[in-house]
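Dock flavin-adenine dinucleotide; give full complex structure.
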Amino acid sequence: MTATLTPPDRRPALATASASGPRGRGPRGGELARQRARRARGRRFVSDLLVWAVWASGAAAAALYLASGGMADWGSLSGVLTGLGIVAGLVGSDFVLVMLVLAARIPLLDAAIGHDRAMGVHRQLGKPALYLILGHFVLLTLGYGLAQGIDPVTETGILWTTPDMIWAYLALGAMVAVVITSLVAVRRKLSYEFWYVVHLLSYVSVLGAIPHQLSASSVLIEGAWQRGYWIALYVVALGSIVIFRFLEPMIQSLRHGMTVERIEWLTNDTAAIHLRGRDLDKLRARGGQFFYWRFWTSRTWWHVHPLSLSAAPTATRARITVRVLGKGTSRITDLLPGTRVSFSGPFGLFTDAARGARRLAVVAAGVGVTPVRAMLEDSRLEPGEATVVVRSSHDDALIHWDELRSLADAQGTALYRITGPRGRTGGWMSQRDRDRGVTLRTVFPQLDDSDLYICGPTAWADSLVAEARAAGVPDRRIHMERFDW
Ligand SMILES: Cc1cc2nc3c(=O)[nH]c(=O)nc-3n(C[C@H](O)[C@H](O)[C@H](O)COP(=O)(O)OP(=O)(O)OC[C@H]3O[C@@H](n4cnc5c(N)ncnc54)[C@H](O)[C@@H]3O)c2cc1C
């Protein structure tokens, strides 16, 4: 039975009968809440440690130069420029290697700080790494030229013909292309496929830089410990990519032998893809997590899609639910049963495990309901502990609604839906509920004691985050799964 609360109770339509609602008894197990808070503190500490480790690795790269006695040449301007150029090159290259490790999808890193955080730091390092590498080229060209009494253009000509330097210039060109196409303003104008192909140039950039580092560097000379350290950095970074982006996913996919079982259309643009395989429960995927999926047909093999589980996997079954957005999703919702599937994951921290507070507040819109549906199934919730709001343009567009209702009924979770067009001023809720005075606080009266989980279209989610922050919810208790790249 669905009950609609009539105004003035400024809350949207309540969908579950048994839920004692936010005013209910609420969660027992102070110990559970303490455990959660401890875990959340631990994760924040590790996350901060990561940032410190990045800076420390940069400082270690600079220390390679200091330890080589390079500052002995700082008696002249050319010596200073050359020294600064060498340090910029070492630190810039170090940051590029750190970016590779962060993008390698290492499960331990994902479990500690989450995929989004790792990729966030990866993106933040892009520009500083490029500026340092550009500085490396400019400062060395000026320093070497000054030492020989020649202008930078002539010096560049000489460097261009120096062994291994042509690879270094090509590596720089590749890096410039990668960073420029990854600038938000530029990326938005590119198709994901084009951006992805250009981004593969990052490997050309990393590999192209190696020869001149080992042949022309005054720091990484034969027999010096600095050279061993530097080669070890490359082995770790490139090794992480090979192992976690290629080998592990390949072994995992072969081990679980996943194939498409059937496609089930839920709405006119959203379908559930039912998958079958072996020992899928051994993937230890948490509800709310996602995988990178590759579907092996001639029309789909080349485009990997990150898609969240929309139900907790069993030993032989898993499910993802996909909204047709572009070419790729229209093709993967048209797959034949038996289509082979490879995957990497699970990834992400949009799970019950990331909670730090006693209560759970969830708002999901459109296909953003998929990780929420799986997370609810995977969470041990007390009656009244959780409140879930599902936002949809209209009732027919609600995805997995019946499953959400039975999960909510079983757990004593309050489940609300907000349907209808968005407000004139945008925002996350319908104009109708806004006019009725519904706000985040009226929906979640115990917001101060809750983790807020948000999943849906970016602009919609950003407006919700803005309202949550304005309502005093600290960022550490806001968990968001972004569906765009
Ligand atoms: C962590 C995560 C979980 C997701 N879970 C789901 C889900 O459960 N159900 C669902 O329907 N969608 C989900 N998505 C979104 C889904 O990945 C994209 O909608 C899909 O890949 C679009 O592909 P396309 O070829 O149809 O569209 P395109 O036309 O190629 O792209 C449309 C938009 O989709 C995004 N996109 C395309 N390919 C990728 C990619 N490989 N990585 C990231 N973004 C991409 C880009 O923002 C692009 O602008 C998720 C995305 C992320 C990042």
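Observed: Residues 114 and 348 are 5 Å apart (CA to CA).
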